[in-house]
Automatic annotation (TrEMBL):
Topological relation to the membrane, as annotated: Multi-pass membrane protein
Subcellular location: Cell membrane
Transmembrane segments: 12-34, 46-65, 77-97, 117-143, 155-177
Name by which UniProt lists this protein: Threonine/homoserine/homoserine lactone efflux protein
Molecular function (Gene Ontology), one example: amino acid transmembrane transporter activity
InterPro entries: LeuE-type (IPR001123)
Keywords: Cell membrane, Membrane, Transmembrane, Transmembrane helix
A cellular component term, taken from the record's GO annotations: plasma membrane
Domain of life: Bacteria
Main location group: membrane
Keyword set includes Transmembrane: yes
Keyword Electron transport: no
Amino acid sequence: MDLPALPSSPLFLQSLWIGLSIAAPVGPIGLLTIQRTLEQGTRAGLATGLGAAAADACYGALGAFGSRLVIDALAQARPVLLGLGCAVLLWMAWSLWRASPAPNAAPLPGETQLGKLFAGTFVLTLSNPSTIFSFMAIFGALATGSAVPAAPGPMIAGVFCGSALWWLVLCAGGALAGPVR
């Protein structure tokens, strides 16, 4: 059985770099992914990272299907998005500060918990102001007057694959470091 060939269109490859470059700067989502990988294992880290990659793909889809409209709408909603993102990050910081220290050997997450890790990171990434403004800047620069590119599929897939690649590398590095003792 032959494996399917990886997409190699210039748009896919360009979008892969966009997804990778937006995911790579270590911020709150990266730290959360590292923490979950070290404390709960590679599966928890990957679920967290893939939640972020899915959110990045959503922003990629918005950019692919109408970057000018999306950029204008996000610019209008900037104060609200900044407030929501800050509130979520402050709530997370408060929760972590008040939480009791994790035991040396945390139980491995079950399938249900992996879904919760994915969904929580998805929502957190969607509300992360740095992610929003990174996509606004990149797709604003790529906008060439056409509201919809000729092939939005490769663009969305490229953003997801690039972001997912970063989270896979980050989780593999965390797994090599071993659990927190």
